[in-house]
Amino acid sequence: MKIEQLPTPCYVIDEKKLENNLKILNGVMKRTGCKIVLAQKAFSMYTLYPLIGKYLSGTTASGLYEARLGYEEMGKENHVFSAAYRDDEIDEIISICDHIIFNSFSQLEKFKDKVLKAGKKIGLRINPECSTQVGHAIYDPCSPGSRFGVTKEHFRPELLDGVSGLHFHTLCQQNADDLETTLNAVEQKFGEWLPQMEWINFGGGHHITREDYDIPLLEKCIQRMQDQYGLEVYLEPGEAVALNAGYLVTTVLDTVKNGMDIAILDTSASCHMPDVLEMPYRPPLFGSGEPGEKPYTYRLGGQTCLTGDTIGDYSFDRPLKEGDRLVFGDMAIYTMVKNTTFNGMPLPAIAIRDRNGDCKVVREFGYEDFKMRLA
User: Fold this and answer.
1) 139-159: per-residue pLDDT in tens?
2) Residue ranges of the Orn/DAP/Arg decarboxylase 2 C-terminal domain (predicted)?
3) CA distance 267 to 276
4) Which of 19, 85, 250, 313 would give a disulfide with 291, using CB separation of 3.0 to 4.6 Å?
């Protein structure tokens, strides 16, 4: 079917655009010898893992369930980091993951022997205390009081025996100049221990597939760690894998007025695109303009009872009416992985748009998917 025939709301992953992103990432791997793994926290549509696995080195997880998904559906390198591991999950995590990264020396001491006995690699997350983000403290692992990573003040080099790599994650939708700044801080605070490591993980937040991203500088940063310390370098982007490779197709249910024109859609910012409210940001909408740019401006909102369930203000060439279809862009990342059934909202269907422009629905959801989460 064509995109106009899909049920709504519906997430649509554009296979061609996804593969273009993967080719860019694979090019970095080939030119530098680094390894790039998919951060499943941003995008975990496992139907496409065979395609992603053709280009990337594997997956990384934030806990047991993501680790299982990567292990079962991609079956390549499988990394995991968690702020803390549960006693009743650690054995299974060790059995299916290659790199187990700890957030503290106390967790390292508690589980190190098990990991080493299983022949797996141990990593330690460090916090270089180098904030390069502006305006998004909620996504800044280097913000004051952050629970992520060991700071220089609390670093205990006498406990590094068995640790083969260091991990940091400080970026969010950022360019390579911020990575370079972070690397300077890492070397300044932890450089004396880098020579005894085998690998280093730059974490995620690298917007590598964005048009203005400085790939040569990224590769320079990778080669710097390789040349100076002999380290194998890992990156674990999530957004860059599926950036601009997905859509959310919606339908206008009604239009009302309250000081301005308002359109009610069959989707929800709160339920289906939560980063619109958390980040916050205004998602791209095909065929629309900024408020006032085109003749007809509308505030777009969802069906839920949350007053703030608004997607944003957009302008159009003609008035909106019931039944009109609207297509939001960049809806692959942090959508399916974070959506909810708040208010009993149905989850959007999931479809793939192939290289010829044809769409296939691969998953639909119903009442039971809402009910099964309750008791």
Assistant:
1) 999 999 999 999 999 999 999
2) 11-331
3) 13
4) 313
